[in-house]
Amino acid sequence: MSLKISVKKSLEYAQKYGSVLTLSQLEERLIGSKRRSHAEIMKVASTFGIKSGKGINKISKKKIRKARQFVKKILDNYEDVLMVGITGSVAAGSAKENDDIDLLIITKKQRLWVVRLMLKIELIRRRIPHRRWNGKEVGDEYCLNLWLDEANLKIPKDKRNIRNAMDLVMMRPILNKNDLYEKFMKKNIWVGKYVNTGYSNKMKRLIKTKYIDSKTEARKPDWLNFFCYMGQRMFMLPKIKKERVSLGSAFFHPDG
Question: Which of 24, 36, 68, 99 has its CA 20 to 30 A from that of 133?
């Protein structure tokens, strides 16, 4: 694929979700399996009239601050929550007032369904707005639509697509214990098949942090987590369409 076609496809993809890319965003989200240099992109981008700038609107900034407060007030208190990342339109910097706040949550091994149940109860008890199953999107609600545990960091093959690849390169980590964000990105090398420039540049920056890629601690089967999983799965079963749930992961976005 030529660079010109890559740029055109990237602009069209962003437009589909209501985004107008700046130069820095184009470099981050350039569609294509080949890594392109900054100079190459600048040269071609000029023919499309793409402007410089950060490209994040005021609404997105407000929602990012809100998500950080949510993590500090609620999720930071959960010992088993290791990473939280903002995804979707807020991470893209193009959020509208009626957009919710998409969050990816990674837990310790064999603790995903315990944490999810405890968090669900706390959100209801505190009356914190969050998106319900098959509920309509409401502005500033938290949409906890992607869950993983630390032993299942690789996105499953049937979920490896342009949408999820783009979400990973755009993701904004707001909680990162034990360098799990770096480990997560490293595990998902397949992202480079779709957005090689953004993924390669991000990995180059992350390598400079000199994080330790430690092995996941071996743990005995957690029966509480298993029972929490079975209970929640039975509750979801009549409603499940394209969603994908397992003991170590949950993908609640039907389009992803």
Answer: 68
Let me know whether 21 and 66 are in one domain: no
Evaluate whether residue 50 is within a structural domain: no
Q: Token pair 């005021």 is at which residue?
A: 58
pTM (2 d.p.): 0.90
Tell me if residue 256 falls in helix, strand or coil.
Answer: coil
The answer to whether the beta carbons of residues 156 and 249 sit under 8 Å apart is yes
| Phi then psi dihedrals of residue 24, to 5 deg | -65, -35
Sole residue written with tokens 């993590």:
71
Closest CA to 225 of 253, 249, 243, 252: 249
pLDDT in tens, 7-63: 999 999 999 988 889 999 999 999 999 999 999 999 999 899 898 887 899 999 999
Distances 84 to 40, 74, 78, 135 between C-alpha atoms, Å: 34, 12, 12, 22
- For 76, the token pair is 């930071």
The domain tally of the chain equals 2
Question: What domain range includes position 230?
Answer: 56-249
